[in-house]
Amino acid sequence: PKGNMAFTGKYEFEGDENYDEFVKKIGLPSDKIEMGRNCKIVTEVVQNGNDFTWTQHFPGGRTTTNVFTVGSEADMETMGGKKFKATVKIEDGKLVADFPNYRHTAEICGGKLVEISTSSGVVYKRTSKKIA
User: Which SUPFAM superfamilies has this protein been placed in (predicted)?
Assistant: First the structure.
């Protein structure tokens, strides 16, 4: 696989694009929309070869953790807390997962974690800077 596959680290939310349009498109309730807006989420990634533990720490102490192995089906949880099964793949150095109503990619770009979610043509981009 091409690209920099070293995901391990701790990343703090830096900025996003198209948040409102995207979360409305995927049907997030308005209280969750408000909670997530400009939310200083810290994403912690532990990578061991193709095995990943991907944790998001939300202000107020809530965390979401997805544990997966590239190429194997895993139990995952969406932004909205829905549980589902997905197989994470690697394409061009990016992690790619098809969530129930959007496609999510993650890559390390210039030391930053760049995540892109796409739903029916709406592209939501979130950038996080490495803090550890």
Answer: Lipocalins
